[in-house]
Specification:
A: Rossmann fold, Rossmann fold, 2 domains, 39% helix, globular, B: 281 residues, 5-stranded parallel sheet, two-stranded antiparallel sheet
Chain lengths: 311, 281
């Protein structure tokens, strides 16, 4: 399996947008290399804006750029894309209804060695609470590239979250990305596993092990956390009668939280959630951190075994 | 001269609108609004080339951003009086289901408003973005913005000041409403901003200063001077000295009317100092 980082998927998507959509502009707060925005910058110097280490100003400028028809893509680490500039996003982008794409790299704990100051695990929660904000967390390089292309065609504020490490690139090249539409990766009957971002691959790995124990898991890739594809999830649990959610995010406020709300409003169903439980991260290798904080396929398997007996 | 008399009449009527709007809700910010009545009137009735048939993109016209959104009463009054929407709508200010929210917003589709403001410090960045957009579109329009002096305590303003000069955003004229007061008291007592002109110049802006910010002729003159300075590789700032509560004797010389409304008796007194010119809404 080819290993590629999702941020490079963003970079490739942005480069393509530079070639096909003259209204796309990009802004970066001194992390052009990390965000893989350098190719766009090279090809479109007049449409690329280096704002320096001034994220609040970057969000404000991006909001202003929409007036006159530009489609701004802002780039910095996920922590500086959200918590650092939450009020700027809230007022100048979300409340003002501006067509800004907030593109956030190094999300979650797999940012690794830089430690907790940079490992935002609350961003999905913050962003999904903003009215009409679309929240997308693709799972691999190909899907991140497809998502980057798709959000340029959607008119409205979007939060696009991706990561730093190289991970398996397993979804089809040149796939069609539909905002708000879940992707069924495997059909099953015993349990539904709903995963987002880097945890989608872990869910697929878990399902292979589960098959050996005669547990047939249905795997759904939720790349869009908001709006949530409620219909797909409800249809699946109607069949499997139990569900596990998996995400590289705080349990509080994440995908699992959205699904818990959906289930309790519709069909109360046994649910187990894989994610980070009310704690900050720390320095370490991405894999070491995923193991310590319970974000691997074996943690998903444990959750499946727990949820199945609650049926 | 006749033109100036007409503009002065508008200013007086705008003052009446402000006073009546905040009185009707017993809430809002009359002090700063009154202090900027001449500035807004000059901008919308004399300086800007703008289209009252509102279009969000504002291509090929001058556009304005109000960064200190709490002075929404003067903004709404001048927008209505210049024809963006009917003046009768001013009666809905701050009421349930109104497009005239406490602080301006695009959310309700009010013509003339291009960005929500209220949480301070964001408008200069927004104006820079719109100015860049105009440059990319080869649009000759000018971008104007207004900021409170107290608002300059927000760090984002200085990020934006630094960016604008470094990137030669020279189709932008930003005015500072220098009334030296904020909600907790005198700017000097809350957090002094020091030598404002020197600070802005140190950030490499072209800086104009107008001591007579409540004299409509002086305001027009300084804005025209600023217009002559644009497209010269530097952003332009105007330090506009104004009097909070201007035009109402008991509201002047104090910060007390920053965010409080007059009662019935006070309204009557204030209105008597500003007799009807164009007609009340």
């Amino acid at each position: 399996m080819e290993l590629k980082d999702t941020r490079s998927g963003f970079g490739a998507g942005l480069t393509r947008l530079g070639q096909i959509n003259p209204n796309v502009v990009a802004l970066c707060a001194d992390l052009t290399g990390s965000l893989k925005m350098d190719q766009f910058q090279k090809e479109n110097p007049e449409r690329f804006f280096q704002v320096g280490i001034a994220e609040a100003n970057m969000i404000g400028i991006a909001a202003g750029l929409t007036i006159g028809g530009k489609i701004p893509f802002t780039g910095t680490f996920a922590n500086f894309s959200t918590s650092r500039v939450y009020d700027q996003i809230r007022q100048s982008v979300a409340y003002s209804g501006k067509n800004v794409k907030i593109c956030a790299s190094h999300a979650g704990i797999t940012l690794g060695e830089d430690g907790a100051t940079h490992q935002v695990l609350e961003d999905i929660g913050m962003m999904k609470m903003l009215p009409h904000m679309v929240v997308i967390n693709p799972c691999d390089y190909n899907q991140t590239k497809a998502a980057t292309l798709a959000i340029a065609d959607y008119n409205g504020p979007v939060y696009l979250r991706f990561g730093r490490p190289k991970v398996p690139n397993f979804t089809p090249e040149n796939q069609k990305f539909e905002i708000g539409k879940a992707v069924h990766l495997k059909t099953g009957t015993d349990v539904t596993i709903v995963a987002t971002g880097h945890l989608v691959w872990e869910a697929l790995e878990a399902s292979k092990e589960l098959t050996k124990n005669n547990i047939n898991a249905e795997i759904i890739n939720i790349h869009t956390i908001k709006p949530l594809d409620e219909e797909s999830i409800l249809k699946s649990i109607n069949k499997t009668k139990c569900i596990v959610t998996a995400e590289e995010h705080m349990l509080n406020g994440g995908l699992g939280d959205s699904i818990a709300q959906l289930l309790s409003r519709n069909i109360p169903t046994p649910l187990e959630m894989v994610g980070v439980n009310d704690t900050f991260g720390e320095s370490g290798t991405p894999r070491g951190l995923m193991e310590k904080y319970g974000l691997t396929s074996s943690d998903i398997i444990k959750a499946v075994n727990k949820v199945i007996i609650r049926k | 001269m006749q033109e100036i008399t007409k503009l002065k009449d508008i200013v007086t009527q705008v003052r009446r609108d402000i006073l009546r709007m905040v009185h009707a809700n017993n809430s809002g910010h009359p002090g700063g609004s009154l202090g900027c009545a001449e500035f807004f009137t000059a901008l919308y009735f004399n300086i800007m080339e703008h289209n009252t048939n509102f279009n969000m993109d504002g291509n090929n016209e001058d556009i304005f951003f109000l960064s200190n959104g709490h002075i929404s009463p003067v903004f709404y009054s001048v927008l209505a009086r210049s024809g963006y929407f009917d003046i009768t709508e001013l009666a809905t200010f701050r009421k349930l289901n109104s497009r005239l929210q406490g602080h301006p917003t695009t959310h309700e589709g009010l013509e003339g408003v291009r960005m929500a403001s209220g949480s301070l410090g964001q408008g200069l960045s927004n104006a820079i973005g719109a100015a860049i957009s105009k440059k990319l579109n080869k649009d000759k329009g000018i971008v104007y913005s207004l900021h409170g002096d107290g608002e300059l305590q927000e760090g984002q303003i200085w990020e934006a000041l630094m960016y604008a000069s470094a990137n030669k955003i020279d189709n932008l004229i930003s005015t500072i409403d220098y009334n030296k007061k904020q909600i907790d008291g005198a700017l000097e007592d809350v957090l002094p901003i020091g030598n404002l002109k020197a600070k802005l110049e140190a950030f490499d802006w072209l800086v104009l200063e107008e001591k007579e910010g409540n004299n409509i002729e002086s305001v027009i003159k300084i804005l025209n001077e600023a217009k002559r300075l644009i497209r010269n590789n530097k952003p332009v700032a105007i330090i506009l000295h104004t009097e909070m509560g201007n035009g109402v004797d008991f509201m002047m010389g104090t910060h007390k009317w920053h965010g409080s409304a007059p009662n019935d008796e006070q309204l009557e007194n204030a209105l008597s100092q500003n007799p009807i010119t164009l007609g009340d809404y």
